[in-house]
Structures are given as structure tokens and as C-alpha cells.
Fold each of these.
Amino acid sequence: MGAVALLENLHCDDPRETVLEGNKDEVAITGPTGQVWPPSGAVAMGAGQDAQLNTQVPINGASIVLNLIEIDPPGLPTDALGTVRIKASEAGTGSKTVELLTEDSAYTLRYRVGNIQF
């Protein structure tokens, strides 16, 4: 039996980008095998905005680490906006909410974990 994380919602409380930079982050979520949301590119998010993710991520082993990143234009480094470790043992415990905080940004991720049976 394996587990899968369903990423439900991402809420931007405070973007990293400043007013001079447009007040929106170009965000994506990555995992051990690469980008998991969106399937390619990035999604622009500003303060108060929500993104419905509806993305399933397999948990191979006891847990998976996912990273929220801001994708900057070519030539600039990607910015880390937070990390979450989702455990397979959370299966069946309902929706969880985790804050992804840096000194420059604040996001909230909602997810739940389920078991896969064959």
C-alpha cells in the first residue's frame, strides 16, 4: 500500500516581490522528481489570491518534501518560498494546512493524504 498527497489550495498572504517588481510572485511547486505544479511554467500570485491546485503527488516511502519556489527571469536565481514535508502516516486524517514562511513572503498550502490500494 502506498500513499498520495492531494495538494488542494495555495493561498498567497504576502508575495516576495515588491511594488516595484509588480507585487506578484511567479510560483511553482517542486518535488524530488521535478516540478509538480503547475505542469510547466509558473503561476502569478499576489496578496490575497488563491490557486486551486488539485494535484496528486505520490509519496514513495515515509514522506515527501515539496518546495514552493519563485521562478525568476532567465539569468536570475530561483527564490525559495518555503518547504513542507508531507508524511504518508497522515493518510486519512483530513485536510492539513501548513504555512510556508520566509522573511520576505507568506503562503499557506492546504493538502490531504490518502492511501492507494491495489
Amino acid sequence: MQNYRELLAYSLISNNFEPNSRILAIGEISESLKNALALKHEIYKLINPEILSAKQL
């Protein structure tokens, strides 16, 4: 099931984003999906989005 999800995510991104697009992955992303997408896109990871709400301006 995990392989299917990764293939679906890869296909969605590859078909809808231009090459060299910047993509923010929120939460966990597998290394294999990250590496595959990194061949054509800039991938950024935000593992813990709660740290953003803890910051005060």
C-alpha cells in the first residue's frame, strides 16, 4: 500500500508541477519519494509544523 501511495504522489506532482518547482512536504515523506522528486524539483521538508505556531513575532 505504501508503494501505491508514493507512486500516486509522485505522479500527481510530476504531472502538475513544472520542473525545478519548489515543493514543501509537510510531515513525513519517505526517502525514496524525496529522492525521486529531487531529480526534477526542489524539495523542502517541514516535519513538525507545530514549531511555527510556537514562535512569537
Amino acid sequence: MSRVQTEESHRIKWATLSHRDGQYEVVTPAGVQPGGLLSVQEDWSFFLEGRLSFEFSTPDYFSDADIGHLTIGIGSITDPESGKPSLQGKGIVIGNLTEYGCNGSCTQTDHPNTVAIESYWATGNCVHGQDTQYPLELQNDVGYRVEIGVSPVSETIRYTLWTKTRQRKWKKLYTAHIHDPFFANSGNRAGWWIGEVFSVHAWSVKFRTIDWSFV
């Protein structure tokens, strides 16, 4: 059952996602979260505009040898029909997509430790690397902020990236958006996730002020 379309905003103050000895762990103010995935699933069956924003920093995630990336999306964490775990939505990746390859409009990034838009559905995914990648590499021990927006009406995905200056102010680094030809593949259920795949080294990423809203 769908809701009346009024905006709802929510916040998680902080969370830590880490990888040690081949195992993922997520810790929030509520304690250790199972499954190594930070996620929220709302009971909205559709939305007109979705937004997710957060600050993040890491002492050790970004590395020239890193082969993994953070996967961040707005959408569903379970398959609507089977109820089984399945990340389906639209969002971004942060990390290394240089080995993704190219298939039409789906392209890898030119360098690791970057940000790019990605869409996810039950049987595939598409990284819009060449069209949306941040042109520089992210660094360890630097504070960043990112905001992701998804608009089913216009079938667009966008993000904006900031960094924190020495004066503790946010400076915009980059913004990108794209009309996603695969938008309809994953519907538009209200929810979000932050996870990681493919890395082999030990690391931790601290997230702060995780805000989300749906209209």
C-alpha cells in the first residue's frame, strides 16, 4: 500500500563499516548490525524524489592496490517478489572501478579511489564511469560529504561531492548527473544501503550525519 506523498526525513548520527580478516562489520549507535550492510527499507512502495547524504572519512580504505569499492544506493535491499536479499536501485560507487570494463553506456573509471554513478537491478548493473566520475582520486584522512538524488519522474541520478577545508567549512568539489537508460529495471522502492565488495585489505570507513528523505 502506498502512502500519501509527504516528505519524511530521517538521520543516523554515525556508523562505521570495516573489513578485517575477510569479514565485514557495521557498527551504529544501536550496536553491531548483522550482515555487513548498513541499510534502511521504508514501507513506501514508490516515491517521486529520493535523497541520501552523509559525511565520510577513512584512515586506510583508499589505496593504489585496492580492488574493491563501496556500493551506495537508493532503492530496495530485498527482491519485491521473493523477499530475498537483492540490491536494486540507483546510486554511486566509491573506490576502484578501473577493471569494470565497457559495454555501451556502461563504462569503467579512469583511476581508482573515485566516485561515479551506478544503477543496480536483479540481473545486472551499470557503472556510468566515463560520464560521471570525479576526475581526481580521493585521499585517506580527508573529510568528505556526498549527497545523492534520485528522481523517478525524470529518470535521473545525481551526486555532489564536498570536502572539508582547514577552516572546517565544506567546499564543493564536483557534481554529476545522468539520465539513466536502465532506470525502470529496478523500480523505485523507498530505501537505501551502504556496503562494500571485492576488497582484500583491512580498512575502516567512518560515516557521520547520514540523512535521507523521500517525497
Amino acid sequence: MLTGIELHPDLGFGITADSYYQSAEHLMTNHFEHYDLTQQAEMPQNFLFRHSTEFT
């Protein structure tokens, strides 16, 4: 059953953390063209992993 975030017992922080974590995993396993050429290629992954742990 789908409900609004405001109805979740944790106010949606858990589902947000899960989506951040899954996005970071996706970026780690799916390298895109010219991805490794950037100076800070891991920055988006680190951002998503860090905030996924903050939400839990």
C-alpha cells in the first residue's frame, strides 16, 4: 500500500535513505562514458552514501 511520506512512522526518512543508497549503488556499478575523466568522479556516490546513513 502506498501512502504519503507524512504518514510514515519515521516521516519518510527511511524511504529517502533507501533511495539515496540505491542511487549510490547504481552509480558505482554503472559507469557512464567519460565518467572517470572528471576530477572528483566519486563525489556523487560519497554524497549519496553519506546522506543515506544520516537518514537512518
